[in-house]
Each structure stands twice: as C-alpha cells, then as structure tokens.
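Hi R.,

Here's the chain you asked about this morning:
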Amino acid sequence: MRGNYAKLYLHLVWATWDRLPLITPELRVPVYQALHEQASRTGCEVLAVGGIEDHVHVLVKIPTTISIAEIVKSMKGGSTHVVTHAVQRGSFFKWQGSYGAFTVSRTHVPMVRAYVLNQERHHRENRLSRTLERMSEH
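And the predicted structure, written out as tokens:
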C-alpha cells in the first residue's frame, strides 16, 4: 500500500456555558466562521455547522493525525477567542467543558449534514434526535 486511505467523519456537538443563550444572531456568523477556521487549521474539512442559541453541531471529515479532543479544543478555544477579543471585546462567552462526538458512516453524511444545517427547524418543531443531541453521559 502506497499511502493511507481514510474517510473519517464526526458529528460534534457542545453547549454554551450553563446552556445560556450566548450565540445571538449577531454572533452566529463570526462563531461559525471561527469554528470553520479552527477546524481547517487542524486539518479537518467542515461539512456543516449549525445550532441554536445555546449549542452547536459540527460535521467534519477528520485526518488520521489528530485526536478528537484536540479538534474540539481548537474549535472551542478559537471561537471563544474571536468573540471575546475581536467581535465583542470583554464580553462573556464560554463553552461547557463536555462535548458529544459521534462517528458517521460515509453513507449517512448527507442525512447528518441536513440535520446539522436545519437545527433551528428541528428545535422549533421538536423533531430532535436524542442520540445526536447528546453532549455528555448524563
């Protein structure tokens, strides 16, 4: 075999601190852009970002060279830094420490991508996947 072959997809989800509604309409675009940028810096390809005011979902294709914890740490830290140092200097913005991470088969990528991109509608209509909304064991 000449080179590695890997198609690894993850669905990530995490909440704001104490589930506070911190992702306001004004912050949504800069936060989502920061998540994209940080994921790219770790070698990930972002396929979708979505969420509501108290949590986000991210679908990524990941390389074999980095851990899930490193990816999430980079995305959380980078997005927090953007909000508190560039977009709304000195404001309170923080993520919870826990997160959910789910492997996604290549055949399910389109379905999970649609779920991530349509978070607002799923929450409004209370059509949520209990599995894909989990952020911790409890």
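The chain has a mean pLDDT of 88.

Let me know if you need anything else.
M.
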